[in-house]
Automatic annotation (TrEMBL):
Record keywords: Repeat, WD repeat
Gene it is expressed from: LOC107705585
InterPro entries associated with the record: SAM, SAM/pointed_sf, Ubox_domain, WD-SAM-U-box, WD40/YVTN_repeat-like_dom_sf, WD40_PAC1, WD40_repeat_CS, WD40_repeat_dom_sf
Protein name: WD repeat, SAM and U-box domain-containing protein 1
WD-type repeats, residues: 92-133, 142-176, 184-211, 277-318, 319-360
Domain SAM positions: 384-448
Pfam families (UniProt xref): SAM_2 (PF07647), U-box (PF04564), WD40 (PF00400)
Single GO MF annotation: ubiquitin-protein transferase activity
BP GO annotations: protein ubiquitination
Domain U-box: 453-524
């Protein structure tokens, strides 16, 4: 059987290859080599394997357009997520010892990396040049670093238990703290950027504010030590109105845990264990949330990668393509991609299919025999094709204007923008009666309600239309991208749902909701 690569590239001095596209079907969890009969095109696909590093891969990090990986070989490699080719200035060489961790600033302009050489280095992603070298207090090896959501701050944790909080704008040390008799190996900022959490080899999770006040300690969160922790990107509201965050942590006890962190006005901080996930048989070394907070990925000593539905902790996929411990994992914030790094010196790139291939079929084929639908399922009219508009004209008895609409290639968005004036001046429909009839039908179309059986969570809170490109705003609610962007641009930076100020205007794709909407519309 001929095995054709997903795509080919010119080999560089640090070779990498793209193997046969391999897809793991749900719910079969594959062990060992993927066979042709196991390959499916619906769920998770191994699309690329990067082989640039000469030693263990310790961390993977995505920005909107780049992937960075760091290794015990002292280097950081940077790739374009367009085709996963290595950038001209990659690899980055500036550390004297192995690089433990790397992370991008919110805008992707900077990359921070930390090392056993006791430094956190800030790199420019425009040139690959070193912007700053931050020396850790006490010259301790630095095990982890993390940016705040708005990149105002950078926190780093040392092997001696010290914590450094840096003012990133000025590249100066703002505060220091310490946890005795342990190493800080994990840290993450809350999505509001006002708090951060650290995890240690002693097994504790500790929450801090920006003044380095110690707010809460969850002792023995993981027996034998914490390996990684990350907050979900969304802010939630508790039943009593308090602010809540979701936190994932993993450790040497072979568990991946999901916590609910509540900020109580009177009683301070409360951490409650929501799920303890046992999908991997050996210590879990890394974990990461998707940008929409709906999925959670983890890597383990047992060589597997597991992907969970984050809210209920349901195991979705178990991926087995690494030969040694899986030490790193990350979701892309802008594409349905996962990167996993391993002690086998490779980085695997996986695509999580979002069902978009079914979108055209769902939109164009009706349930009554394959005829083109005019959109009476009440999907967003502005997404109709020109053919959908012509079908609608026929059904509404407007055959007299079909040739005019066809010649001008009028699609759904243009249909909704038509006026009596444009019908006359641009489409040259001379009959006043015909223009009035067309406009009446267009107004009826605009006013037509969405089907009463549509789940409310599929409707944009602003437009009350079924969402096509749902995104999550800083208030934790999902909106149609175009609608919330318009809201932010034309109104004050407040939440449409709570009327409270938005901490950031950053929008993250809600891919899980998009998949659910596509599945639902297919069945209508």
């Amino acid at each position: 059987m001929c095995q054709t690569p997903a795509f080919s590239v010119r080999k560089t001095k640090r070779e990498w290859f793209c193997p046969l596209r391999q897809t793991l079907p749900l719910p079969v969890f594959l062990k060992g080599p993927v066979r042709q009969q196991d390959i499916n095109t619906n769920m998770v696909s191994l699309i690329c394997t990067l082989q640039s590093h000469r030693d263990d891969v310790n961390c993977c990090a995505f920005s909107g357009s780049l992937l960075a990986t760091c290794s015990a070989d002292k280097s950081i490699c940077v790739y374009s997520t367009r085709d996963f080719s290595e950038l001209p200035f990659s690899p980055l060489s500036g550390h004297g010892y192995g690089v433990h961790y790397c992370c991008f600033s919110a805008c992707g302009q900077y990359l921070a990396s930390c090392s056993t050489d006791a430094t956190t280095v800030v790199w420019s992603m425009d040139s690959g040049e070193i912007e700053a070298v931050l020396e850790h207090p006490g010259r301790s090896p630095v095990r982890v670093c993390a940016f705040s959501p708005d990149s105002s701050y950078l926190v780093s944790g040392g092997s001696d238990g010290t914590i450094a909080l840096w003012d990133f704008t000025s590249r100066t040390l703002r505060r220091t703290g310490a946890v005795t008799d342990t190493s800080i190996v994990a840290c993450s900022f809350t999505p509001c950027g006002q708090l951060f959490i650290t995890g240690s080899t002693y097994g504790d999770l500790r929450l801090w504010d920006l003044n380095m006040n110690h707010l809460h300690a969850e002792k023995n969160a993981h027996d034998l030590g914490v390996s990684c922790c990350q907050f979900a990107p969304q802010i939630m509201k508790g039943p009593d109105g308090c602010v809540q965050f979701r936190l994932a942590s993993c450790g040497q006890d072979s568990l991946l845990k999901i916590w609910i962190v509540s900020l109580l006005s009177a009683a301070g901080i409360k951490m409650q264990l929501a799920h303890s996930l046992t999908g991997q048989s050996d210590p879990v070394l890394s974990c990461a949330y998707s940008a929409d907070g709906q999925m959670l990925v983890s890597g383990s000593v047992d060589k597997t990668v597991t992907v969970y539905q984050a809210y209920q902790g349901i195991l979705l996929y178990t991926l087995n393509q690494h030969d040694r411990y899986v030490t790193a994992c990350a979701f892309s914030p802008t594409a349905p991609l996962i990167a996993t790094g391993s002690m086998d010196k490779t980085v695997n790139i996986w695509r999580v299919e979002d069902g978009s291939g079914a979108q055209d079929q769902a939109a164009s084929v009706s349930s009554s025999g394959g005829r083109k639908s005019s959109g009476h399922s009440r999907l967003m009219v502005r997404e109709w094709s020109a053919e959908d508009v012509l079908a609608w004209l026929r059904e509404e008895g407007l055959e007299a204007v079909i040739d005019v609409f066809k010649c001008n290639n009028i699609d759904g968005e243009e249909l909704l923008s038509l006026t009596k004036e444009t019908l006359s001046s641009e489409l040259h429909i001379d009959s006043l009666g015909l223009r009035s009839k067309v406009m009446k039908k267009i107004e009826e179309l605009k006013m037509a309600p969405v089907s009463n059986c549509t789940p409310d969570e599929y409707l944009c809170p602003i437009t009350r239309e079924i969402m096509k490109d749902p995104v999550i705003a800083a208030d934790g609610y999902s909106y149609e991208r175009e609608a919330i962007e318009s809201w932010i641009n034309t109104k004050s930076r407040t939440s449409p749902m709570t009327n409270l100020p938005l901490q950031t205007t950053l929008l993250t794709p809600n891919r899980t909701l998009k998949m659910a909407i596509l599945r639902w519309t297919t069945c209508q």
